[in-house]
Design goal:
Blueprint lengths: L4 E2 L2 H7 L1 H9 L6 E3 L6 E3 L5 E7 L4 E7 L6 E4 L2 H15 L4 E2 L36 E10 L2 E10 L15 H7 L3 E2 L15 E5 L2 E8 L5 E12 L2 H10 L1 E6 L11 H13 L4 E8 L2
Length: 288
């Protein structure tokens, strides 16, 4: 039975025309599924459904989502993260089809010269050892801009981040981001301007998976990717869903540090802004 499936060009390129056509004809697509984004039941014979391809280093797994929750896309993940996704999908859907590895697997995406790792909510990773690259720590919290609570991500590396080839040790993290049109934030009460084109925050299965940036070859790639999907609070997710955006802030290493409460996080952001050490952008939300 034909399915109401959306198969994006990038998904089709990974799985091949024959497999895509079989999916659209209903051969390998389940009629009912649990949405990989919001986890609510879906019916591909009755409602628009997106195909979402999770791509690891050696394997890929095809999952399904409500089209209203997330568009059809390729999501690069680490092999370990893919195994976790397979377990979650299998528990929810009683199995998910795996397809052969693409020509070039998507691993953890690099972030402006820094290794892509994750820090649990409101925790900071340990400083890097001498000669080791910095990693990007992520803190999730609600930040008030005027009278509105915004779902925010605060990105702080564990050490200086330089441009490729720069061995001086100079920290160029903020200038790298302003090159990508992130704005200097002088007043946290004022949210950054309209959403940054090509960037987005990927939520899947109710957890934070990645920050995506435009790819030079078209589509998107992971700028930051969670080593393990990051759990967020219900209030944070509700704010992100209500606005369909996430506010991303970034600071140099050692600026904000570990802040266990949102009021302390806000105070640290205000101090960073006053010192000219805070940049930000509004990123569209992909998924829920």
């Amino acid at each position: 039975m034909p399915r109401m499936l959306a198969v994006s060009d990038e998904v089709r390129a990974e799985i091949g025309d024959d497999e895509a056509d079989r999916l659209l004809a209903g051969a390998h697509a389940p009629e009912t599924y649990d949405c990989t984004s919001c986890r609510a039941p879906g019916d591909s014979s009755q409602e628009a459904t997106s195909t979402v391809l999770f791509v690891g280093d050696e394997t890929a797994v095809l999952a399904f989502a409500h089209a209203r929750c997330i568009p059809s896309q390729v999501v690069p993940v680490s092999e370990a993260q893919l195994r976790g996704a397979v377990e979650s999908i299998n528990q929810a859907q009683g199995g998910a089809p795996a397809v052969g590895a693409p020509g070039s697997g998507g691993g953890a995406g690099g972030g402006v010269g820094a290794a892509a790792e994750t820090a649990p909510e409101a925790e900071r990773p340990a400083p890097p050892a001498a000669g080791q690259p910095a990693v990007l720590g992520i803190t999730c919290g609600l930040v008030m801009c005027g009278d509105t609570a915004h779902a925010a991500l605060v990105v702080e590396p564990t050490g200086p981040v330089g441009r490729p080839g720069n061995t001086s040790g100079e920290d160029e993290f903020l200038s790298l981001l302003t090159d990508h049109h992130f704005q200097q934030v002088t007043d946290v009460d004022r949210a950054p301007d309209s959403p940054l084109p090509g960037w987005s925050v990927l939520m899947a299965m109710g957890k934070l998976h990645a920050i995506l940036q435009p790819s030079a070859t078209g589509g998107s790639s992971a700028w930051w990717q969670a080593h393990q999907p990051l759990q967020v609070t219900d209030a944070w997710r509700q704010a992100a869903n209500a606005q369909a955006t996430v506010t991303m802030y970034a600071v140099p290493a050692g600026t904000v540090g570990r802040q266990p409460r949102e009021d302390l996080l806000r105070q640290a952001l205000d101090r960073a802004a006053a010192k000219g050490l805070l940049v930000g952008a509004i990123l569209p939300l992909a998924g829920t």
